Amino acid sequence: MLTDDEGIEELKVKFLMVKAVPESQQIIELPCSRLSLTLIGRRSAEYAGTRYLKRGANFKGQVANDVETEQIVWDTRSSPDFKHGKFSAFVQRRGSVPLIWSQDPATRGVVGKPVISIDINEPHAQTAAAHFRELKQKYGSPLIVMNLVKRREKRRHEALLHDQFLKAVKYLNMFLPRAERIAYLSFDVARCHKSGNVLSKLEEIGFRSVIRHGWFQSFPMLYCHRVRPNLLLNDYEPMCSMDGRFLLQHGISRTNCVDCLDRTNVAQFGIGKVALGIQLYSMGFAGEPVLSPASEVCRMYEDLVDQHGDTLALQYAGSQLVHSIKTYKKTSIIQACLSERSRDVIQTLSRYYSNTFGDYDKQNAINLFLGLYRPNSAGPHLWDLGTDHYLHFPINFKTKADYCAWFIDFDNLDDWEYVIGEDVHFSQSAGVVFA
After folding, report:
1. Of 78, 138, 182, 209, which residue is the least packed, with the fewest Cβ within 10 Å?
2. pTM of the predicted structure, to 2 decimals
3. Are 429 and 401 in contact (CB under 8 A)?
């Protein structure tokens, strides 16, 4: 069956559908209503794999550990079905740094981290361009990139990714109008954690992001909020559907660290917590668009995000989160070490064992299940392949993207014209012309 094209496509669809099933759900009981809070994770099947065997992105800009996270608030008493109920949703995205880079587990020895190496230096950032082009087509603008890798280290390690990623974003922004440029934010979580104010900083960043993106809501803004807007939402400019019935989210926040697991999870919690407070306020269930950290709803949401992160970490790294959200909530570093140290050691050992002894077989199973490897009597067996590199990086791959008009998808657009101010003019026939 795996050699049949239709069977392969059917398996891919089933795989994607399985990953779209809600991971976690909580019921919030209110005096006036009953809310359902759901967190959904949709993992991409395009460049799927395990931790050290799938890093960065492929030539199409599809990144490793690529997950779309959506939080949905549903007023269950508004309607007995899903078609006419009152909903609110907010979407985030996580994924590896969109460059051609890797980490060879053989370089770490018994302890330590494998060396990060940039396999292909791209002066025109074609891989990053392909990735952000897909994000722009799917979500629109603005795109907010939160890079959580370390910038200052005694021995240069993660900073290499930061420098290369920043260079790529700066190049791509040269060809975009100011209003549509990629917003790049570097936030060193590990360094900020030493001062004990990670979550407060993330809340500030979250407010700016949510105000710029907005959120989806299945009904218009409440009249009382239009007449007397909250001061915290003064800069919010709602985007509505054509008929004015819905509020829409435009653009997305994309978060990454090296693994896109522990630090990324706490960053998405910070942004999602802000979004949840605004969602409850916009739906009329809260008096202020701020969710108190001591509230029961915040505790429920924290549990959902931790479960969400544990599930993603088990799939990608072979263990649960090494650093949960509770680690970053401690005001004292000593207190955090005492309470979380035993858990961290166990998860670190579990992750090390899985990466060393189980990831290769797991990667082969993923390649077979997704149809990247197709059994052939004339070809080598799956277990005889020395590497799966050429399954994900075809030798004959060619891109049609323009170095300057990188945001245009030539494969899906027959006739286009794009003007940036008075200085730069793009067209399908002329490419880029500077006035």
Report:
1. 138
2. 0.86
3. no
